[in-house]
Design goal:
The chain is an alpha/beta fold. It is built from eleven helices and 14 strands. It is elongated, with a radius of gyration of 24 Å. Keywords: ATP-binding, Nucleotide-binding, Transport.
């Protein structure tokens, strides 16, 4: 439903994106992750036609954003960067004006969307009196009024309290269930991404470092917590057999390497194995492993307790 291919973009000679390609399937909730400056907002800006790529292209459905901007964006609703409203006007008048920029204002449809985002009682009040959460709901209403097939969200839960974050999460999940909505959003709240997303794309310094399901991300290199003595003998043995030492007392094994075989080999080599247990890593753990700058600290051997 949404695809980007070979995106390159530099600002002032500094690369922001370098050959980024990924796709979002129809009806999928897809997370776009990365540190500040990784290229997330630049990517969304290119998809929305607000940023011109140096190379590459974005498609909504089968329509190129760069070649047929208006037609491509007829299928898209978006909250991009900080939503701007007329503070001195009510929420309803804001929606009426903003909808008029891109098409016909349908009062009945707008009333239904306003009710859906929970703003019916406050929609006639001035936006200047709205809380941050109410502004985000108004922005969401604006994005949904055109009945888009794709929803693009730039840090939609930023600044919301836990109740607001849960409301947003439930809203998006219900929206996908009811309408088959395709959603691409970037967020730094990894716990929310883990609960919402079918797949994720991770950027680091403008380069794509992972695209796939969360399960595939976990299965790429299962991690085990180990206690092995003597470590000076165990560490080189593990590395020689395909294991990767990722931290004190933790190793990663290739998916095709059975831990039972590794344990048997360790014991057969005279190494005492007192712990060898799988560790369930959260999205935060996986994200930090992928995006972290290599450090000597990560290679420190595990020193068994006396």
């Amino acid at each position: 439903m949404l695809r980007v291919s070979g995106l390159h973009k530099s600002f002032g000679g500094r690369p922001a994106l370098q050959n980024v390609s990924f796709q979002v399937e129809r009806g999928e909730i897809h997370g776009l992750l990365g540190h500040n400056g990784a290229g997330k907002s630049t990517t969304l800006g290119i998809i929305l036609g607000m940023v011109e790529p140096d190379q590459g292209e974005a498609w909504i459905g089968d329509i190129s954003v760069q070649k047929n901007h208006a037609a491509a964006l007829q299928q898209v609703g978006a909250i991009f960067e900080s939503p701007a409203f007329y503070e001195y006007l009510g929420g309803w008048d804001n929606l009426k004006i903003l909808a008029g920029y891109s098409g016909r204002f349908d009062a009945a449809a707008t009333k239904e969307v306003v009710a859906r985002v929970g703003l019916t009682e406050r929609i006639r009040q001035k936006v200047g009196s709205y809380s941050h959460g109410m502004r985000q709901r108004l922005a969401l209403a604006q994005a949904l009024i055109p009945e888009p097939k794709v929803l693009l969200l730039d840090e939609p839960t930023d600044g919301l309290d836990p109740e607001g974050i849960k409301w947003f999460r439930d809203f998006i999940l219900d929206l996908r269930a009811e309408r088959g909505m395709t959603v691409l959003f970037n967020s730094h709240l990894l716990a929310e991404v883990e609960q919402m997303c079918d797949r994720v794309t991770i950027l680091r310094e403008g380069k794509l470092v992972h695209e796939g399901s969360l399960k595939s991300l976990q299965d790429e290199a299962p991690v085990y917590e180990v206690n092995l003595e003597p470590w000076s003998q165990a560490a080189p043995f593990l590395e020689l057999n395909g294991a990767r030492i990722i931290g004190p007392g933790k190793i990663a094994l290739p998916p095709d390497l059975e831990p039972a075989i590794v344990v048997a080999a360790l014991v057969g080599s005279g190494i005492r194995v007192s712990a060898f247990a799988p560790v369930r890593r959260s999205l935060e753990d996986l994200y930090l492993e992928i995006t972290a700058t290599p450090s000597k600290d990560l290679a420190l051997p595990f020193i068994p307790a006396a």
